[in-house]
Amino acid sequence: MSSSADNVTTDVDVVIHRDGSPLQYQHDNIVVEVPVALVYNAVSHAVMMTTPTDLEDFALGFSLTEDIIEQADDVKFTHVQANKNGITVRIMIAEDKALALREKRRNTVAGSSCGICGIESLKQAIRPLKPVQTVNVSDDVIQFALKNIEQHQPIQQTTGAAHAAAWCDLDGNIILSREDVGRHNALDKLIGAHIKAGLSPHEGFALVTSRASYEMVQKSIRAGFGCLIAVSAPTSLAVEQAQQLGLKLIGFARDGRHVIYHDPSTQSHQENAHKAM
């Protein structure tokens, strides 16, 4: 196994089987996945399995969407260092945020195979969030963005194993995109890049090449995004959160079609239509 120069993909020897054909021996490009330790003010907080790209963006986005910080200025500096076991990202945050994080860790009761780690009760699983300003996006704009997302996925094109999260302007032009083996990581990277670029969450929408789980909706709302579009299905909790907090949520976004699961601008019309059925 040999890694490429940018350490995003690696070559492996594979054997390809096709019915009725001789076995084929060749090389295949696969995406690199490494453990990344996030260390806040010299205290290890989490180890995430990620693609080793845009890790400063990832650290900033993760810190915001996991409520470790409230704003970008709470991060004083970030240092990324590779070692033989993976990558360590050291993040220096404001002291009051570091104290709050340490207190949270002391109060945490850890469980095995947890879906949302670092919580100690069911109540904490659904975190309170502020409503967002809905962003209205036309059907044509959504389809325009979908037609262009593939060219912003170089890792996916090479390996077939990466999710993408993109920020699109109100005309559907893709302004930023980030990729990762994990859909949450890709979105965190995008949110970090979005913050660093100083973009307004009210002047565009997020497009993700994955399903719209509750965590994806939660992260989008925490970033202030008013519209999230996913190429696959949402979950029930994702739709509930969108309804409660004003997020326009679209799933199954494919060439020529998409499904609107929640649109506050047409909610009253939809409710009247359901009553009439």
Question: How would you characterize this protein structure?
Answer:
- By secondary structure, the chain is α+β, with helices and mostly antiparallel strands.
- The chain contains nine helices and 13 strands.
- A six-stranded mixed β-sheet has the order 9-8-10-11-12-13, with helices on both faces. It has a four-stranded mixed β-sheet with strand order 5-4-7-6.
- Strand 11, helix 8 and strand 12 form a beta-alpha-beta unit.
- The chain is globular.
- The protein starts with a strand and ends with a helix.
Features:
single chain; 277 residues; Ubiquitin-like (UB roll); Cytidine Deaminase, domain 2; 3 domains; four-stranded mixed sheet; disordered N terminus; disordered C terminus
H/I helix tally: 9
Low-confidence stretches: 1-5, 109-115, 272-277
Structural class call reads alpha+beta
Domain tally: 3
- What is the radius of gyration? 20 Å
CATH topology of the largest domain: Cytidine Deaminase, domain 2
The chain-level mean pLDDT equals: 89
CATH class of the largest domain: Alpha Beta
Choose one word for the global shape.
globular
**CATH architecture label of the largest domain:** 3-Layer(aba) Sandwich
Separation, N- and C-terminal Cα atoms: 60 Å
Instruction: Please report which band the strand proportion falls in: under 5%, 5-15%, 15-25%, 25-35%, 35-45% or over 45%.
Output: 25-35%
* Helix/strand order, N-terminal first: EEEEEHEEHHHHEEHEHEHEEH
Can you summarize the main beta sheet?
6 strands, mixed
Helix content: 25-40%
Physical arrangement of strands within the biggest beta sheet = 9-8-10-11-12-13
| CATH homology-level superfamily of the largest domain | Cytidine Deaminase, domain 2
